[in-house]
């Protein structure tokens, strides 16, 4: 393996004696101070001074904190460089501790090809893989569905496996839909008296939920309590999401109450799964209650969650309640992102139309004005509803004003919209205003065909 160039040696702010260097190296907490603070150059500079100033070899343990710290800083190639430097420059023979530390860094940073090379090198060097070594290798293999069978073969060659080994395999199998294989391993853990951790339980429950085996997932969840394993927020969230997607949102509501009772505060994922599930089942009022609980806990709902509830309330005909949530969202400064923007536009238009249909024209118009001010696109149907409602209220001038704004927005009114406005004028015998409106607004290169139709209708109506 090629070695990256060694970092430039730094100058210390004050002289450090050989005795101090030795003290630093022997003191693991002090070694961690440099590496955990991401002071990589000072740490390597310190390592380089050990041999010339103390006339003693650098111990392998001195490299381990820095190897791991490079990994935490997402610098796997520097971990590999330091490992090679340890062998060639410092003449330190790596043991399974160094190999395991390096393998863990490479796998965590998805450098799987390098991880396999290091593993093969370890075997060639006569370093026997430990359980930790196998666990890292199995984790790397499980990251690719094609390598799952290889991971199982490696697992079967192990003389002894621990809970981490089983957990890694079960997680990989569940993520790739191989629930039967995962169930066999889970049962095998019980037979071999290996206690499953909360991570293993969570992986298995998540896998069962993905394949809609919800009753079994609930049984495994109950088994956790019997074995004294306390579920965490991820466990609860996986089960909540599975129940909601499986159309059992009311069961999920009970699970949320149990979650709070167990002093496991729900997170954004927990609440989002439940709100989305309730809205899918038409239980919008319950979803709005969950949103209130979410706010009381100090969690800030996003535009997507508000959009789901507002849309659901509109479909139930609860226009004012929907408008209240819309006002609350705007006043809270909650803005949509690129993913939720289309929903954001749709719910605003939906609220305008539902308010108008419910006779709340003034409030609908205020939402419409707010949309124009904030640059939210207004759909043609929203314009049409507003114009029709104002014409019905005999407020033809307001209807005509909306048509003008409609044209400014680049939206061409249809025949019915023009007819409503002209009919409003003519209904009040304002023939002059109708003619002026028609010629001011309709005559143009884009509306010539509509003008001919309107002239005919105007002549008919004026003779009535």
Description of the structure:
- Among the domains are: 1-93, no CATH class; 379-464, Serine Threonine Protein Phosphatase 5, Tetratricopeptide repeat.
- The chain is 71% helix and 0% strand.
- The chain has helices at residues 18-26, 28-36, 40-54, 64-72, 76-88, 96-108, 112-124, 131-142, 148-157, 163-175, 179-191, 198-210, 214-226, 233-245, 249-261, 268-280, 284-296, 303-315, 319-331, 341-357, 361-373, 380-392, 396-408, 415-427, 431-442, 448-462.
- Helix 24 (415-427) packs parallel to helix 26.
- The radius of gyration is 34 Å and the shape is elongated.
- InterPro entries: PPR_rpt (IPR002885), TPR-like_helical_dom_sf (IPR011990).
Strand content: under 5%
Q: Please report the total strand number as a whole number.
A: 0
Q: What is the residue-mean pLDDT, rounded to a whole number?
A: 83
Could you spell the SSE succession in H and E letters?
HHHHHHHHHHHHHHHHHHHHHHHHHH
Query: What does the main sheet amount to?
Result: none
Q: Quote the distance from N terminus to C terminus.
A: 95 Å
User: Which structural category do the helix and sheet elements fall into?
Assistant: mainly alpha
Q: What gross morphology would you assign? A: elongated
The share of residues in helices is over 70%
Our count of helices gives 26
The poorly predicted ranges are: none
What assembly state would you assign to the polypeptide chains in this entry? single chain
Radius of gyration: 34 Å
